[in-house]
Specification:
The protein is α+β, with helices and mostly antiparallel strands. It has 2 domains: 161 residues, Beta Polymerase, domain 2 (2-Layer Sandwich); 140 residues, no CATH class. An 8-stranded mixed β-sheet has the order 1-10-9-2-3-6-5-4. Strands 7-8 form a two-stranded antiparallel sheet. The structure holds adenosine-5'-triphosphate and magnesium ion. Magnesium ion binds next to loops.
Length: 409
């Protein structure tokens, strides 16, 4: 297909109705259009609407520059030093993101510093066609034009949507080197949508998977959190393991069958409506490694458990610059599981039952018991004990021991 000759699908021939588009997004699109600018819905929202799914967010692309956008909207703020975007704010902390069409810069326009490429590439303004071409997959490069309600397809994304195929724009060997995070996104979208990866993606991953270790940890962290939010962490990490990506993605994560089965159970829990917290996800990732890290002599050694939990969680949190609060919670969850696994009747059990992290640790332990059925009776026993124990609040009313020396000075 000739890229400069897009397929334009008129309103009568596609399923996207304005009723499905968020009202504030429509206001922004209409205003840009009224003032003579191109105004398109772009990226994931067009893909999801065409698939009959609810988009997570609605992003807008326009040929207005960020400062032109700011002049049109009173409630507009320009954000990002490197990646200039217009944020238009609405009631209830709602933000609509408006990005000016961008293009891939020429080789001689790139900054010397290789690390700056990804940001720089996103910051050179271009035409809608160029903007489509700099995106990752054909199905993520569709536009919905507010001027005539048509869908614009420069790169064959509509056919790929129809045929449930994930296709990289351009040569994956080049695009994955340019931005290794795209390798992870490829697996993520294929699993999320139930699409097949184009054959050339497998080869490119095989050649370039080690580059994942050079990607900005903050971006990998964000994509990993997305996996948990979309309830696909087990399926995606299983595929990453099969494609040899895990050591470069999550260096300390062994990705055993049981560990991955636990993630699949966690995904089911999220699908059932339980919110997913990052600390819980991290603890689930490393639970199996943690429990296997003790020698038989240390099976009851809480000092060893504290040490191991600290080592394992700290390595992950240091690499991804995760805040100490989350690190602390993840560590407590592992320690809680260690205590639960020791069985009932240990010293200080009463205090443990009332510890604020214990119910969460038990949730994780129960998930684990679903993949290791011999733990089910113990998990049930603990559940009964915790349900019958007084809350932490009641416990804190217990009179404290006096310090006699202080009292008598
Ligand atoms: P989601 O439903 O998860 O939000 P999405 O397709 O909107 O899916 P985002 O991560 O929000 O994904 O990115 C928005 C759009 O930006 C994508 O649809 C894609 O066109 C483009 N994009 C995102 N990341 C990259 C990347 N690494 N390289 C090229 N284009 C990208
Ligand atoms: Mg999005």
């Amino acid at each position: 297909m000739n890229a400069s000759n897009p397929i334009i699908v008129p309103r009568s021939q596609h399923c996207i109705s304005r009723k499905q588009i968020d009202v504030d997004t429509l206001k922004v699109l209409n205003r840009l259009h009224r003032y003579g600018f191109k105004a398109y819905l772009v990226g994931g929202s067009v893909r999801d609407l065409l698939l009959g799914r609810q988009p997570k967010d609605f992003d807008i692309g326009t040929d207005a520059t960020p400062s032109q956008v700011r002049k049109l909207f009173r409630n507009c703020f320009l954000v990002g030093r490197r990646f200039r975007l217009a944020h238009i704010r609405f009631a209830g902390n709602k933000v609509i993101e408006v990005a000016t069409f961008r293009r891939q810069p020429e080789e001689n326009e790139l900054p010397d510093n290789q690390e700056d490429h990804f940001h720089f590439v996103q910051n050179v303004f271009g035409s809608p066609e160029e903007d489509a071409a700099r995106r990752d997959f054909t199905i993520n490069a569709l536009f919905y034009n507010i001027a005539d309600f048509s869908v614009i397809d420069f790169l064959g994304g509509l056919k790929d949507l129809e045929e449930k195929r994930l296709k990289v724009i351009g040569d994956p060997q080049v695009r994955f080197v340019e931005d290794p995070v795209r390798m992870l996104r490829a697996i993520e979208f294929a699993v999320r949508l139930g699409f097949d990866l184009e054959e050339n993606i497998y080869r490119a991953i095989e050649n370039h998977r080690s580059l994942l270790a050079t990607a900005a940890p903050a971006r990998i962290r964000e994509e990993i959190i997305e996996l948990f939010r979309h309830k696909i962490s087990g399926a995606v990490l299983r595929q990453c393991r099969e494609l040899g990506m895990l050591p470069y993605l999550l260096a300390g994560y062994p990705g055993t069958d049981e560990g991955i089965a636990l993630l699949a159970k966690l995904d089911q829990r999220t699908a059932a409506g339980m919110p997913i917290e990052e600390s819980f996800a991290i603890a689930a990732l490393y639970l199996r490694l943690f429990m296997d890290s003790f020698s038989p002599a240390d099976k009851n050694n809480i000092t060893a458990a504290l040490h191991q939990a600290n080592e394992i969680i700290s390595a992950h949190c240091r690499y991804f610059s995760i805040a100490s609060g989350i690190r602390h919670q993840a560590r407590e969850l592992l320690i809680g599981c260690f205590r639960l696994a020791r069985g009932r009747g240990f010293r200080a059990e009463k205090r443990f039952l009332q510890h604020p992290f214990t119910p969460k640790a038990l949730e994780l332990f129960c998930l684990w018991s679903q993949v290791r059925p011999e733990l089910i009776p113990l998990a049930q026993n603990w559940s009964t004990a915790i349900n019958n124990s007084p809350t932490g609040k009641q416990q804190s009313r217990r009179p404290r021991k006096r310090n006699y020396r202080k009292k008598s000075k």
